[in-house]
Amino acid sequence: MSRKVLRAYAVTRTETGDAVIAVVQVVEPNGEAYRFDVAVTPDETTVTGDDELLAYLHERYGSVLFSSVIRSAALREKLGP
After folding, report:
1. What's the CA gap between 60 and 28, in Å, rounded?
2. Strands (E), the chain
């Protein structure tokens, strides 16, 4: 039995000094996809986009999982799924 999970990938990605700036596509198991702007530094990950959508994804998948998935996608050098 295959278990579907939240996934994400970078659409664009730029390294600037100590930060990585990316546009990340987040895809729910049902195929719904959303884009967010992400800035990753050694100390924090900042995600900007629709506040209601961010709240929904945090509530549905948990803040730790959502943050981990989006941060990993932004830091991955490969673009796309």
Report:
1. 10
2. 7-16, 19-27, 33-40, 45-48
Q: Up-side HSE of residue 30: CA atoms within 13 Å toward CB?
A: 2
Query: What is the C-alpha to C-alpha distance for residues 52 and 60, in angstroms, rounded to an integer?
Result: 12
Mean pLDDT across the chain = 91
Instruction: Give the pTM.
Output: 0.89
Chain CA centroid to CA 73, Å: 6
Tell me the pLDDT tens digit for each residue of 53-78: 999 999 999 999 999 999 999 999 88
What's the CA gap between 18 and 41, in Å, rounded? 6
Cα 2 to Cα 5: distance, rounded to the nearest angstrom: 10
Check residue 79 and give its pLDDT: 79
β-bridge mates for residue 24, sequence order: 10, 36
